[in-house]
Amino acid sequence: MDYSRPLLAERLAAEYVLGTLRGPARRRFEALLPAHPGLRHQVQHWEQRLHVLAADIPPVNPRPVVWQRIQQRLFPAAAEPLRPWWQRLALWQGLATVATVAAISLGVLLQQPTPSQPPIVVVLQSTDPALQKASTGAAAQFVASISGDGQSLVLKPIAGASITAQQALELWALPSGGGAPRSLGLVSAQDSTTVLRKALLQGNDGFAISVEPPGGSPTGAPTGPVISVGKFRT
């Protein structure tokens, strides 16, 4: 699932905040939030949007006979005396709020596209902690989330990705069968990086990150130390 699409991210965040995203889908969404700034932004947006929902609903003062008939129908043998309107107001405000949230939830569900393949999450581990401490300052680790259709990747550093001003980090796809790595471009050492490519999963066994000059590898192959590697096929 391509979480870089703004419309999809907004729909999933809306379901998450409303509580209609449940089970494994909700747990997967929560696990991906730390690596997806766009998803976190949409969650905050919907939380703020729904927080004031109840405040926008005007008070409703039903006729006394309405509550009396409800009590008589539900509890015909022990109908309570009619309560003052200020005691009944909270009930009607609550019902109006529930009805509004239910309507929004239904709209989100009707617009939600058919679920596609779940994303693939790969952790890129340090290849040689001793070497990385010498060249980049720490044993680097990254997490990559690849959409199920293999057309987008979000890479986020977890620990130890510090580099100098004369260095850059480059992401590589590792072809099956030990072929030459394919460059996917430069990535950030501190923030999330989104990579949009076709067939990110096709014919590949995983990903690697190398330390290169500021503009990237001048040869089309890794020239500096490969600091992290992650495989998604066993």
Automatic annotation (TrEMBL):
This is Anti-sigma K factor RskA C-terminal domain-containing protein. Residues 95-226 form the Anti-sigma K factor RskA C-terminal domain. InterPro entries: Anti-sigma-K/W_factor, RskA_C. GO terms for cellular component: plasma membrane. It comes from the Bacteria. It holds the Pfam family RskA_C. One of its GO terms (molecular function) is sigma factor antagonist activity. One of its GO terms (biological process) is regulation of translation. It comes from Aquabacterium lacunae.
